[in-house]
Design goal:
Largest sheet: 5 strands, mixed, barrel
Order of helices and strands: EEEEE
CATH superfamily: Nucleic acid-binding proteins
Distance between the termini: 41 Å
CATH architecture: Beta Barrel
Number of domains: 1
Shape: globular
Strand content: over 45%
Number of strands: 5
Strand order of the largest sheet: 1-2-3-5-4
Structural class: mainly beta
Helix content: under 10%
Radius of gyration: 14 Å
Amino acid sequence: MPKAEVFGVVVSNKMDKSVVVAVERKVRHGVYGKIQRLTSKFMAHDEANSARVGDKVAIVESRPLSRRKRWVVTRVVEQAPEI
């Protein structure tokens, strides 16, 4: 069974071979019906140190790599614009 691929934006890359990815999803409120944006932050393994802050990346679940790391960056979908 293939693992689910999730897309998010890199919010921190200060660690070696690790990044923090913010994944945003839209959920309808149970009582009021309003659509809300919920953000989850995941630690992800980035073997090549290729992801930069602001890049849109694809991550997949993996075995536990450390206490908080359970995701791996598969590819950089879109690079952040240079400032």
